[in-house]
Amino acid sequence: MREGIASFQTKKAAQKRGSDRLSATLRFDGPVEAVSQVSPQRACALAVRGIEVVRDLLDRFPRRYLDMSQVVTIAQATIGLSCTLVARIYETKVKKPRRNLNILEITLLDSTGTLIVTCFNQPWLADKLHKDDLVSVSGTIEFNYGFKRTTNPIITRLEDAGEAHGIIQAFHGSINKLSPSIVKRMIAHALEEVRGLYDPLPLSLRERYRLCSRYQAYRAIHFPESIGEVDMARRRLLYEELFFLELQLITEQREHALQFPGFEQGADEALVNELAQVLPFELTREQAGARDE
């Protein structure tokens, strides 16, 4: 009796898991406005950029990652080498020494020192970066006029990245005036909507090539715990894209072969041999092989 009840409960649990997976898979290609945090206004803004279903939103991958384990302080930054550091903006100055030349000078402070950042002809940064903003800066360190400096580095407001997962900070781009932090929150909710979705690649294939599941790949590429997870996710998603591209090409090739069968032209063997005999030279082995074909 107990064994029968246990078997029934196991079967019901399996059916529920299957139903949940099916629902998650359907939501993957469902309308993006079904995701929490995606209002009708935001859905319209996303649609302008071609984002209409949940899959489209999840395919907007981060534009860069910051490995916090590799971040150094201003004092640790080595002159002549490229590095990444995190500091707070003390002040910004815009200079226009001559026509068509715009110079933005940013003074950064951390607990160990001062860094001067110089950006040429990037006036929009003056509107984006403000005093007390916490930023990451990646560039080559120089030393001039008594200060460490860097010119035209990669600058990112850490407030735009949202909460870090592990030691990796992922930076999503804005989408049609939706800020990076809003985009990141929408993606987080979208991942919850599709948790447990079916994987189109069979388990045997994933095991053979050591690929993670589709859901794991999307989770890792948006909210990685390490750079290794980012590489793992990219490898899986790239394999899937190439795999289905190859299947599509094979399908089209077979359909084309059925629609346009090849034409086989018969050859008069006696005439071919007679032609070879009247030639003023002897056929080479390759030429004879071509004749036989």
3D structure, described in words:
The chain is of the alpha+beta class and 293 residues long. It has three domains: 2-62 and 173-198, no CATH class; 65-160, Nucleic acid-binding proteins (OB fold (Dihydrolipoamide Acetyltransferase, E2P)), CATH 2.40.50; 214-259, no CATH class. Helices cover 43% and strands 22% of the residues. The protein has ten helices and ten strands. Strands 2, 3, 4, 5, 6, 7, 8 and 9 form an eight-stranded mixed beta sheet that branches. Helix 5 runs antiparallel to helix 7. It is extended, with a radius of gyration of 30 Å. The relative contact order is 0.11.
Instruction: Report the order of strands and helices.
Output: HHHEEEEEHEEEEEHHHHHH
Shape: extended
CATH topology of the largest domain: OB fold (Dihydrolipoamide Acetyltransferase, E2P)
Can you tell me the number of structural domains? 3
Q: Main β-sheet, in a few words?
A: 8 strands, mixed
**CATH architectural label of the largest domain:** Beta Barrel
The CATH homologous superfamily of the largest domain:
Nucleic acid-binding proteins
Rounded mean pLDDT score: 88
Return residue spans where pLDDT drops below 50 for at least 5 consecutive residues: none
State the helical fraction: 40-55%
Distance between the termini: 74 Å
CATH secondary-structure class of the largest domain: Mainly Beta
Total beta-strand segments: 10
Q: What is the radius of gyration computed over CA atoms, rounded to a whole number of angstroms?
A: 30 Å
